[in-house]
User: Fold 2-hydroxyacyl-CoA dehydratase from Aromatoleum petrolei.
Amino acid sequence: MHAVMEKAASAAITGEPRNQVEYIQQSREAHHYSPGIQKLYDLALSYFPDAEKGNQEGTPAVWSTGLMEAPLLYACDTIPMAVYDLGRLGSAVEAAELSENIFDMPKETCSMVSALIGEWYMRRNNSVKKVVALSTVCEPLNMGYEMIKEFGFDIHRVEQVIRPVHGGDERLEQMIKFLASELEDVAFFLTGKPVDEEKMRAEIKRLNRLMAKFREILKLRLKNPLYIKSLPTLFLLMGSAHYFGKPAEYEALLDQLIEELKTADFVPSPMGKIIPLTWVGARGLEFGVYKAVDDLGGALLSWFTPNPYDRVWNEDIPPLESMARFILDYFVTGSPVNQIKYIENMIEESGSKGMLFYTYIGCPYGGMHVELFRDHFHKKGVPSSGLEGSWQVGAPSGQLITRVRAFIEMLS
Ligand code: SF4
Assistant:
């Protein structure tokens, strides 16, 4: 039996949720007191089906990273479908198996790439066929985009640049100009014409407004961390980059959660006291890890993930330039050393006692970033624990849970 299926079978026996939907169901029940959280999960679960249906009925959608393209895509009247959230909202068990069995993917292929290719294969006849591929840090993923062309996907590549270390302002300005012109081409790919700058400017304002509300939620959560536990906070974070295809509803949801948090009764930890923590790295698919953190008395109060909610887009410059500057400031595309100051701020503001570093097994990029961060924070005396997970659904491995337990107990 395939290892992932074995795990799903054993989870079924032990009563652990077996897939993403079951974890969400469990989390919904745990947050029965919060209408906002119920709405959040409704939005998340309807995201892809509604975007796919809308696309068939004339509201275009496009696959993209779902991390920082929202202002450009919404300005092109196009719904972003977040590739990187496919596993959290898809069916990764079957997808990974398909890739391994049908495409004969080598075992050592990153599980994220395998699963994504499988997901697209399953969706080849009935989903959105356009893809905006930001050629970011990852060559395996770039190759994956090449492979899905044969299923009829229409791939538009955005050549990416990274923030230069040498060459001063002049070199940086050249790169910003280049990236802005690449982003302009995205608008041509989607609509056949240049982006409407006024519309994009309004979308940037919207993003900044929504991020301010998201930050307010995190601030209010400091006083009542378990009112919104880790899993829904992760979903809020995901939605902060694409609004689950429904910007107005996502904003109303943020407003509602702010109001709830202002008046909510304190939700105690099952362990008595709460250990504040910062999560750094990938956002993970093993929802059981988040549940374990909560159950063991931890609270993930700040998140340094591919959703840079702590940054503000410049509203006073041409919008494509603003987007290019934002991307060049962004940790996935440049030296992780540039990002240490942001993590330090998060630790300080959230009063975190420790950090959990999460990477996917076999990901050289994530692994190297995390090593650099760990080294820095180790020298500063901030305790941390490294978690290596995989792009899979179902219960996390016992080893991951043991690490989480040992770490939180050490900090208690
Ligand atoms: S986990 Fe790493 S190797 Fe895999 S797709 Fe993501 S960046 Fe690439």
Notes: Residues 110, 112-113, 137-138, 140-141, 360, 363, 365-366 surround iron/sulfur cluster (CB under 6 Å). DSSP finds 17 helices and eight strands in the chain.
